Amino acid sequence: MKVKNGEFVMPGDKLGIIEQFIPGKGTYDNDGDIESTVLGNVNINSKMKTISVEPKSGSPATLEVGDKIYGQITDVKPQRANVKIDRLVDTQRDLSLPYMGSIHISKAKEGYLDKISDAFRIGDIIKAEVVKITGDNVDLSTVSDDCGVLKAMCTRCRGYMATTEKKNELQCKRCNRKEKREVSNEYVNI
């Protein structure tokens, strides 16, 4: 497909290939194909070899390094926790693409962490910072004080947990079980 400068495109439309252009705003690389993320007009910069799409309305939120996100832990492996990214902090706009991220054990907290399950469990709601974006892979960090677990449920009875006097410890309100987490200073006690 050969698109022209100014042509109207829809999300998912193929604009070119990675050997032809560098993906710009409003586009992404889908296994070598550059596709549109928004409804708008194509903008080709021949000198810089970039292709982008100018949205017809306000642009949807896209992730950039340094952004803070809200997400939910979907899987915990020995060295990393996978995160379904729900939205950017401080915006009500939906993300332009469904993003999945991961937190490596070295980016979970300051200092040494023996096992990542001491920081996160499946179902935890977290706040994290975007540290690297490679294609559709998003690397996250929870080292900052405001990042980490915002809400957690007990792994035994699924009751909501509250903070204790100890740093990075939560206690279930229903069964009194105590568990370790990388707790944000913005944790929501109900």
- In percent terms, what proportion of residues is strand? 35-45%
Q: Helices and strands, in N-to-C order?
A: EEEEEEEEEEEEEEEE
Number of strands: 16
Q: Are there runs of 5+ residues with pLDDT below 50, and where? A: none
Mean pLDDT: 90
Give Rg in angstroms: 20 Å
User: What best-fitting shape do the alpha-carbon axes yield?
Assistant: elongated
Number of helices: 0
Query: For the report, how would you describe the main beta sheet?
Result: 5 strands, mixed, barrel
| Biggest β-sheet: strands ordered side by side in the sheet | 8-9-10-12-11
Which structural class best describes the helix and strand composition? mainly beta
N-to-C terminal Cα separation, in Å? Answer: 54 Å
Approximate helicity band: under 10%
Features:
four-stranded mixed β-sheet; single chain; mainly beta; 43% strand; five-stranded mixed barrel; 190 residues
Structure description:
By secondary structure, this protein is mainly beta. 0% of the residues lie in helices and 43% in strands. The chain is built from no helices and 16 strands. The protein has a 5-stranded mixed β-barrel. A 4-stranded mixed beta sheet has the order 1-6-7-3, with no helix packed on it. Strand 11 and strand 12 form a beta hairpin. It is elongated, with a radius of gyration of 20 Å. The mean pLDDT is 90.
